[in-house]
Amino acid sequence: MKVTEVPAIAGAFLFEPTPFTDERGFFCRTFDADAVRSVGLDPGAFVQDSLSRSVRGVVRGMHLRSGEGEAKLVRCSYGRIFDVVVDLRPGSPTYLGRATFELSGDTQATLYVPAGCAHGFQALTETADTSYRIDREHDPSEDVTIAFDDPGLAVPWPLPVTVTSERDRKAPGLAEVLRTLEVRTP
User: Fold this and answer.
1) Where are the coiled-coil regions (predicted)?
2) 102 by DSSP, 3-state: which?
């Protein structure tokens, strides 16, 4: 498994498996505790696995958690997504930095999003399944949402946005969230 540091987001990593292909298709390891450990992360810290299914054009995000935040491993297990991470950790050397990725079921690459970073994605295919491995149990009182189309984020969504949740449609802009956001980072 190849591990690459994401320069635009301090502490973010891209894990790219090595698929074994033959006439049946492919097989690959999508999580490797040793690879996770090799970059200083605790593989045992992840306590919840979740899955979302989206249709082409759907945007989910931009989401993060206040307080201790929430680190996650994100992988598109089927289809393709345009994935976005924005660093909102005030003490980070990449504060307000943004990185984008295309994750797909063909590559099964996994993105590590550090706690304190906003995350969102857009489905690029008719069906896109996105898997999350999260390091904390969900606490709805800590949910923070930023308007996905806020000019302060300047996310270059590749497709017209077809559907979002009501929560995402009504989300405040980046400047408003930054005034009230409390994220404790180690």
Assistant:
1) none
2) strand
- Which pair of structure tokens corresponds to residue 11? 């502490």
Alpha-carbon span 150 to 173, nearest angstrom:
6
Q: Which of these, 68, 55, 59, lies nearest to 158 by C-alpha position?
A: 59
The active-site residue, picked from 63, 95, 112, 119, is: 63
78, 95, 119, 132: the active-site residue: 132
Return d(Cα 48, Cα 10) in angstroms, integer. Answer: 23
| Nearest partner of 133 among 21, 23, 15, judged by Cα | 15
The number of beta carbons lying within 10 Å of the beta carbon of residue 26 is 11
Cα separation of 74 and 86, whole Å? 14
DSSP SS3 for 64: strand
Is residue 119 flagged as an active site residue? no
pTM here? 0.93
Confidence of residue 185 (pLDDT cuts 50, 70, 90): low
Six-digit token pair at 173? 């802009």
Residue 183's closest CA among 96, 26, 65? 65
Q: Which amino acid, 111?
A: L
